[in-house]
Task: structure prediction
Amino acid sequence: MLPGQQAYWGSLELQNYPDALSVVRALAPDEPVILNRPHAAARAARFFAEKFPGKSLYAVKANPSPDLLEVLWASGITHYDVASISEVRLVRETLPEAVLCYMHPVKPASAIAEAYKVHGVRTFSLDSREELDKIVKATAAEDGTPAADLRLCVRLRVSSDYSELSLASKFGIDLADAGELLQATRQVADWLGVCFHVGSQAMTPFAYVQAMERVRAAIVDASVTVDIVDVGGGFPSIYPGMEPPPLGDYFDVIARAFESLPVSYSSELWCEPGRALCAEYNSMIVRVEKRRDDELYINDGAYGALYDAAHVGWRFPVKCLAEGRVDALGTYSFYGPTCDDADYMEGPFLLPADIQPGDYIEVGMLGAYGAAMKTRFNGFGTGSVVTVDDEPMASQYRGDRRDPRQSDNVVSLR
Ligand SMILES: *Cc1c(COP(=O)(O)O)cnc(C)c1O
Result:
């Protein structure tokens, strides 16, 4: 990122700090500060690039910050799963040589045409006959000659039962109808793929086993040659109360399932991690503006990076940055800064019993679906971005995995 350039969410300071406490001491910030940890994202990217038994596509929607995209690219992630024409343009602009795969099953025709003709996108996903026809039409030459280099992935509906956040009801074709669509897609595709998404934060590798069984049934039913099997996202990160098995277990199970599929030996295995590649990239410093008993009014919330904490009760670890507070902990809920009652995070969040207005809090593990969710609603949502050198509050990639003191800092409310 060039000096003076705008980061995705605020102005990116050029100076590095050792940790959140140093940022508070130096800046005493009036607005929330997002902390970037490039070393953590680089470590995650290298892990997937080296250990996943196939190709890893970064799912850009989890965190589209250009500074993060550059870190992932430099650490071996060459393919990017994009879902809108704005994401196509953003990644193309940031990483001119990246391979872009447009994996939203419902796209405007104009977006497909621009992606194919202007940005070199060849891979598209679909889950209906209408979308297939739309893709063929939008990518044809002016004289009507159909494109001969399309890589088309048919999205199967699979169960989200093993994941914290469902992606099962919206997209994906039912197994009963998949055979016909696979055959029709095979007719026009240079490469034919099958893809699915087990839901986000899949807490057991078994989620992929049941999905791969559906892939097998669909391939057998259609009797088509399949060139790509794409197991989607869903790879978990670590949050309080949610400690999944090591990612290596997921990779082993997926590799075994892939090897036993009726596909040619030259077919490729893909995955689309979002959360797992970026969760550790960001945390955020917020300030307590007011305390009312066990309710803390902080300066970010439901319309900011804490969207998931408010809307789906997601558990993020927290840490008080004020010095000299007592060891005894109290349980708190948070109000965000907007005037909306819904700007509320029930928690409970465990913080010092004598926390006061003016104290700062670091909220961890906000790289995935956190920093990306900020809006400007009600005049909030601005702030700055700095880089820190310390470890994220939890890590899948460090070996020791987690500081146990942080592990139950936020108690599940579900
Ligand atoms: C959101 C999404 C992903 C990333 O999911 P994670 O759970 O963050 O890994 C991957 N692929 C598709 C098609 C998605 O919509």
About this structure: Confidence is low (pLDDT under 50) at residues 1-6, 402-414. Residues 59, 61-62, 81, 103, 197, 200, 232-235, 272-276, 368 surround pyridoxal-5'-phosphate (CB under 6 Å). The first strand starts at residue 11 and ends at 17.
